[in-house]
Amino acid sequence: NWTIIINLFKFYINNVDFFISLNTTETFISFEFIFKNSLSFTTAPSDRLKEILNKKKISNYKYILEYSPLNSLNLPIKNTLNSIAGVYLCINLINEKIYVGSAGINNMYRRYSGHLLNSKGGSILVNRAVKKYGLINFAFIVVETIPDGKNVTELLKLEQKYIDNLKPEYNIAKIAGSLLNTKWSIESKLK
Fold first, then answer.
1. Is the pTM of this model over 0.90?
2. From CA 85, how far away is CA 88, in angstroms rounded?
């Protein structure tokens, strides 16, 4: 028995991943159309994510969002994320590269969607990687929360701890908050 899977098309409409795949076996040919516009909360990481978390020595996390998780939780993503403040990771499940960021109360969802869903307001490197690898190959994890979501100093200190420990490949700035309110020129964005 043999199986061949060919991704015929991968395209975006309103920044939503669409895939059309051809699946061929000895006796069966099928076309698969996959549509997914968001990740889902899960109680446990997938095997792929678990392996990366172990390699990076990340054992504590508060929330995990992954594509089609086995143990999904029915939580409203926007309301849940906006109710917390803390440090988060965007993890590429293919090349294991990480982005470390932080967000205060009422900003976590904006950061999540900016990085992974709509390519506005997030890391340009993460945006490009999502376009290249697809949302299906990313996870968003809140690794630590703080009780005072308005305490920017505490939040940036915590983010810096994760930047120092994880050495994230997708972070352009290696100092937490150093690009806060930075406006990029067109030339910088194209680099």
1. no
2. 9
Number of other CB atoms surrounding residue 86 within 10 Å: 22
**Residue 96 region by backbone torsions, left for phi larger than 0, else alpha for psi between -120 and 50, else beta:** left
CA separation for the pair 26, 24 (Å, rounded): 7
Predicted confidence (pLDDT) per residue in 33-71, tens digit: 444 457 889 989 999 999 999 999 999 899 999 987 777
Name the CA radius of gyration of the chain, rounded.
Answer: 18
Burial classification of residue 15, based on how many CB atoms lie within 10 Å of its CB (0-12 exposed, 13-18 middle, 19 or more buried): middle
Residue 96, judged by CB atoms within 10 A of its CB (0-12, 13-18, 19+), counts as middle
Closest CA to 177 of 188, 163, 191, 167: 163
Of 166, 132, 186, 161, the C-alpha closest to 53 is 166
